[in-house]
Write a structure and sequence with these properties.
The protein is an all-alpha fold. It is built from twelve helices and no strands. Helix 1 runs antiparallel to helix 9 and helix 2 runs antiparallel to helix 8.
């Protein structure tokens, strides 16, 4: 079962990096993400209805799901702001690196889970690797585009805090609702959170014309990737799985180098291999 969970998490990490690439390439991040949530809600609605009878949405369960929706909504709003302020190679490692600092602590303290010394060492490797990626200076062309402020890093860090928060809450929510029901609820929360900025942007038609096909794809892989992680979370400890999902940082780095032609690609890819070593350490000996 643990091996299955690891495969699901690695697939989730790749899909996460892929739709973040699409988000960064979009015209208006709020509008693009709003459309993706709408597509996801429609596509996953039949499955959600089928699984609805297994839900226990009353009392504590309802409160936990609502908290999850709020955290996911805040996450997606901050994500749009972060990608509007900074480059993929700047934002992605920071936001994915914040979570491994927090999730294992939450998993151990809230759920009574445990990590071996090797597991903590693996997490340390992941965090160090991500920190090194974040410290790599972009090339001249990227520097010219980068904002001369801490806005993007701060937004990315806030996104990472939201990730840590919703992972911990979602672990508890799975005790009350199936993964697909929780995923549908968070998609609705995301749509509501993005609606004000998206609808007042005046770019709804422009984004749809430019990225209609990509929006359809994003509406599948964004929730699909997180569903893989939720399924993994239901069969293995959160403190072990959440850091593994940060392999998406490696995928994101490679996509940034190959697709976006970002500078210093070889150095960034080599640094990201350190994260892979940390992932293997956590997965095998954690």
């Amino acid at each position: 079962m643990v091996g299955t969970a690891v495969v699901l998490v690695l697939g989730s990490g790749f899909l996460h990096s892929l739709w973040n690439l699409y988000t960064k390439k979009s015209i208006d991040k709020n509008v693009f993400l709003w459309y993706c949530q709408l597509v996801a809600i429609v596509l996953f609605l039949p499955w959600t209805i089928f699984e609805w009878d297994s839900s226990r949405l009353s009392g504590e369960g309802l409160v936990i799901v609502l908290v999850s929706m709020a955290l996911h909504g805040l996450y997606v709003v901050l994500l749009a702001a972060a990608y509007s302020a900074g480059d993929l190679s700047q934002v992605y490692p920071i936001m994915r690196g914040t979570s491994p600092l927090l999730v294992p602590v939450l998993g151990v303290t809230l759920y009574g889970e445990s990590l071996s010394a090797a597991g903590w060492a693996g997490i340390s490797l992941i965090v160090v690797g991500i920190a090194l990626l974040s410290s790599v200076k972009p090339g001249r062309e990227a520097s010219a585009r980068a904002p001369a402020s801490w806005k993007a890093p701060l937004l990315a860090s806030a996104v990472g805090v939201c990730i840590a928060g919703y992972i911990a809450v979602d672990k508890a929510a799975l005790e009350y609702v199936p993964a697909v029901v929780l995923n549908e609820a968070t998609n609705i929360g995301n749509l509501l959170a993005l609606s004000w900025a998206a609808l007042r942007s005046g770019r709804m038609r422009e984004e749809l014309r430019a990225n209609g096909k990509v929006i359809l794809l994003g509406g599948v892989i964004a929730p699909g990737g997180y569903l893989l992680f939720l399924f993994a979370l239901s069969i293995a400890p959160v403190a072990q799985l959440a850091p593994m999902r940060e392999i998406g940082t490696v995928f994101g780095t490679i996509l940034g180098v190959l697709i976006l032609r970002e500078q210093q690609g070889a150095r960034r890819i080599l640094t990201s291999l350190l994260i892979t070593l940390g992932v293997i350490t956590v997965g095998v000996w954690g």
